[in-house]
Amino acid sequence: MPQPSHDILQRFMFPELACRGEIVxxxxxxxxxxxxxxxxxxxxxxxGEALAATALLSATIKFDGSLSLQINGKGSLRMLLCxxxxxxGLRGLARVEKDLHAQEQPLFAQARLAITIETGSPAxxxxxxxxxxxxxxxHALETYFERSEQLATRLWLTADDEQCAGILLQRLPDYASQxxxxxxxxxxxxxxxIKADELIRLPGLQILRRLYNQETVQxxxxxxxxxxxxxxxxxxxxxxxGLGEDEVQxxxxxxxxxDVRCEFxxxxxxxxxxxxxxxxxxxxxxxxxxxx
Length: 292
Fold this sequence. Notes:
Elements: E1 8-14, E2 19-26, H1 28-34, H2 41-58, E3 65-72, E4 77-85, E5 89-96, E6 112-119, E7 125-131, H3 137-149, E8 153-159, E9 164-171, H4 183-191, H5 196-201, H6 204-211, E10 218-224, E11 226-227, H7 233-243, H8 245-254, E12 258-261, E13 268-271, H9 273-279, H10 282-285
Parallel strand pairs: 5-11
Antiparallel strand pairs: 1-2, 1-10, 2-9, 3-4, 3-6, 4-5, 6-7, 8-9, 12-13
């Protein structure tokens, strides 16, 4: 039975070469991200590549929690954030200068890319940071893997107005024991032949057949990816409690209600005076705060 080719991440490996890979193409997930904000073309392209990369990275580890890819800098692109949760939920956004086209500063300036992994219970947090030497998300991530994981890794990423996609190849730790010492270079050279429009338009399995028809490729499990936001009224209430009663009451004095909008999905959470009083009631604040 043919597999759907949209919003599916397919894992694969080369069992004879001690190398593994993943391929992903996002359509509906990417559409959901773009439906919630409008970005200049250059920023949209970077965000699409980062979204595909986040899906690929989240599949390289087995975890119950979240993985975030964040870029911060002093250029026109001030912040970009993509987050993936175990189970396939993915979201992303970017913040740019309001008048981007009037700015002479480059898109990236003193930019750094951070990968943050947060697990569930018991709670653990790991973060790795690398400088963005150029405007290529793939180059920064390859440097991250080289420094943080000591694993040779290559990524191919692309995005347009309708889809974003990517391929990840990784050399496994036992690669040195393989007889085929040219395998990694050969696989990278083969993957370098993929064109951006092919990566976006062709089904993943067809791409694998085209690229590696002379290699033994073993398909592993696949994963459905979809847009998913973790915001909720409970999380928003926890955030307001964290601000403190005085701060929240000051907002309430200026407005008829406290209105919080999620930047990822545009969901709106409103708290009127009665709801604010309930947030800071002795019964609530003396107990456990809402889960964040």
